[in-house]
Amino acid sequence: MSLMGVDVGTTGVKAVVFDDKGAQIASAYEEYPLHFPFPGASELDSKGVIDASLRVISKAVKDAAPISPVKAIGIASQGEAFTPLAPDGRILGNAMTSSDNRVEPYVRSWSDKFGYEHLYATTGHAPYTIHSLYKMLWLKDHQPDVWRDAWKFLFFEDLIAYVLTGETKVDYSLAARSMLFDIRTKKWSSEICGALEIDTAKLPEPVPSGEIVGKIKKDLAESLGLNSDVTVSAAGHDQPVGALGCGAASPGLASYSIGTVECITPLFDKPIQSPELMAANLAMYPHVLPDMYTSVAFNLTGGSGLRWLRDNIATEEANTARANGEDPYDCIVAAASQEPSNLVLLPHFGPTGTPHFNPIATGALFGISLSTTRAEVFRAFLEGITYELKWNLTILKDSGFDLKELRVVGGGAKSAVWMQIKSDILGVPLKTMRVTEATCMGAAILAGSGAGMLDAAETSAKWASPIRTFIPREEFTQLYQDRFDIYKDLYYALDSARRKLHILKRKG
Asked: 117 lies in a domain?
């Protein structure tokens, strides 16, 4: 028996096949371009995403066949982006991605009209440009023909599943990311959809994560190298699916994905919706495990901030690394000061994630003097990126989340130095995981669960194998707490200057 997990991301799609012990036996990946038709817009060509998804599924199936044929497929995807389809299945327009900001005028006006607190209580999400609700409002006003002619609005999880099976179902976790979903009833909100003037029949049927959408169409099964009895399951939103894949499958655990975006995804055994969480824009929505809930704390400029450092300041280290066939980031980390920095970095190289949701945030490096060294600057970058996540975890803790351990995946997890810094700052143990494609593994587990082959939580615990554990060092934890207090003070102190700079940029 082998299971396939498919992860449909913003910049590419990956398919990975796992055997019954959780070992990876085949994989395929394909990138696709983002399109920026005008300032503030960010789109994906949905037909291109479909074609790329079918190609990587076919390749992974072919490579796995000599070892073990695929029995079930689980599909996970990015949240929020949706595609309008005609009754004959034609794509009527591109999908607006989560980073598309054209909808900003709708967020405040519509949310004020509907009620901020009411929206949060119903959907589990604070209003922001990323959510599908506001993108649908824009589509309705600016592309009325598409809005009128659309038969279905499908997210990428259910779009790919529809292509494979002809059925339209979406799991609860991904449905919730739209802000059209009532997390209490597990149904599309008739109140919100009514105010939007969208017929809920145009949306896919919400189902529990892992539920079978259908079987592969016979003609498509043959072309993909699959048996026609292969089932396709709606796995879920990529973040909680990835949390399942790295073993964060019980209360008190959370996944920590370290890449271009840094994201912490905790697991709750009951929904918590406090005023503090709402003010911090921390969502509360269904997890991919039954009767569990999750949130998403994220820093949009994690790895992207380090990339800026690599390309603009640490050019000497980066060039030396490339000349020696080494990873530039490894060289930057190695060149960083071994002691905590006296500098404080605000890592806001673009709009912030949680807790601020600040679209005009800017970065800052505080404390520079004539004695400041490159090594201190490098260290400040590593620390500042982590302070942003510490802020989120502090709010979650104050709201009742007792974090015991972080399960870490992503490119940044390869650096032992950075992992120790993160453990010292966050004050919790970090376990780096063996799996490199946690979202695909989580999707495969949910496919097996939906097909009745395994228990998702039990399999997650078995398949997720830690490599190394990092324990916070007491002598550094308090020191970092003091610097974190300065970090927060600095963010608020710069608010007025930040707004003035934004106005000047617009005038320029």
From this structure: yes
**Degrees (nearest 5) of the Cα angle 412, 416, 418?**
55
Over the stretch 287-324, which tens digit does the pLDDT of each residue have? 999 999 999 999 988 888 888 999 999 999 999 999 99
Based on the number of CB atoms within 10 Å of its own CB, is 308 exposed (0-12), middle (13-18) or buried (19 or more)?
Answer: middle
Q: DSSP letter at 288?
A: S
| Residues above pLDDT 70, as percent of the chain | 100
Domain housing 26? 2-246+435-468
- Say which CATH number the domain at 47 has: 3.30.420.40
Tell me, yes or no, whether 452 and 478 share the same domain.
Answer: no
**Tell me: the pLDDT tens digits for 82-103?**
999 999 999 999 999 988 889 9
Beta pairing partners, 17: 4, 26
Question: Which 3 state secondary structure label does DSSP give 100?
Answer: coil
Nearest to 120 by CA among 110, 111, 107: 111
Helix (H) or strand (E) holding 172: helix 172-176
Q: Which residue in this structure is represented by tokens 């789109």? A: 43
Three-state secondary structure call for residue 108? helix
Instruction: Give the closest residue to 470 by CA, choosing from 420, 406, 402.
Output: 420
Q: Are residues 196 and 312 in the same domain?
A: no
Number of structural domains in the chain: 2
Q: Which residue has the tokens 């999750």?
A: 294
